[in-house]
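Moderator note: this is an archived Q&A kept for reference. The question asked for a predicted structure of one protein chain; the sequence and the answer are reproduced below.
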Amino acid sequence: MSSKTPTPHPDAAPRGSAPPGPAGAAEGAPAPAPGTRPGLFRDASLSAVLAGFVAVVVSYSGPLVIVLAAASAGHLNTAQTSSWVWAISIGSGLTCIALSLRTKMPVITAWSTPGAALLVTSLGAYSYAEAIGAFIVTGLVITLVGLTGVFGWLMRQVPTAVVSAMLAGILFSFGTGVFTSLKTAPLIAGSVLVTYLLAKRWLPRYAVLVALAAGVAASAVSSRLDIHLDRMELAKPVLTTPEFSLASLVGIAVPMILATLASQNAPGMAVLTASGYEPKDRLLIGSTGLVSTALAPFGSHAINLAAITAAICTGPESHRDPKRRYVAGVSCGAFYLLIGAFGSTLVVLFAGLPKELVAAVAGVALLGALAGGLTGAVKEEKDREAALITFLATASGVTLFGIGSAFWGLLFGVIAHFVLTRWRGTPTEPAK
């Protein structure tokens, strides 16, 4: 590793395509020969596959509900709704697999959650064809922003401590969710937490898997599983001819672009960076933008980098060797494709899981990433105040102008950093 490359966190992955150093590799892990790339099946592990599965469970148990609410608000029929679920699932799956294999990083993508939330209140004001036109414009603009490198340049100006603090702020509510779930479902959440701790001691690579199994068993015992699968049928994509109107571009496309870039792609890049990788912004943002554009006529509102589910796959729980965590991205993509192929049919499987189970499993799966974010945030004394401001603003969950707290935490942290470190001027000699 060149002397210019910063040393990653002990649990972090190698940055980008740079050769991995000893700090980023698992203890005793052999380095790949120059000019070779490890095979996917050789690198595969149960823990990485499980990390991808947990990420998908979290996605379909939470953010997808917002998409379904938006479809209902827009008066979409069953076929259009199924096509929308198919499009965002297939888009997320293809980008997860392709980008993870291409970069050898656990690249996790998903649909824009703030974008879907925006559509809950705005989709009903336009025709579905106008919304499709706005989705296409959204994808094209995000592609342009990504391919030009403007977005990546802006992200590189952000101090590392601020990025780590934003990651910690994003994950904070998931960490506390393990314990708040104890109030409403003590058996389920308690089983997950206790089993995780015991497994972490003796079976660390499979701690999340064992905790998930214990949580499902506790849910069944307490009669909290509500899964009804009457039929299985493949999704049928519905192609809609777009219509373009100034009203839909202003009302849907503009806020969707801002929300997706600021509240999704920025935290998504930050998660990879905080985990020690060097994400290639042109490739990642440009690719997700292109896929969004291609699938927009079928209902996809926006495909982007994920943050919360990405943290599940980029941490040590995925695999102790950062070079092998990309398998989690491939696994996540494969599960996306499987579920997407059946449209909204398989969604009921995840909708039937108790929310306390999902919260508890996500919380324990994210403990490593949260610890890494907190460590990076306080590592440099000169950056601690700015990092603290970032953490508090992000963890507050505040939403302003339709943009989530992750962006505002990042913005306030950068401002604080410049005020506290860049604008001090030349120190004067103390008076004698």
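Archived answer notes: The longest helix spans residues 246-274.
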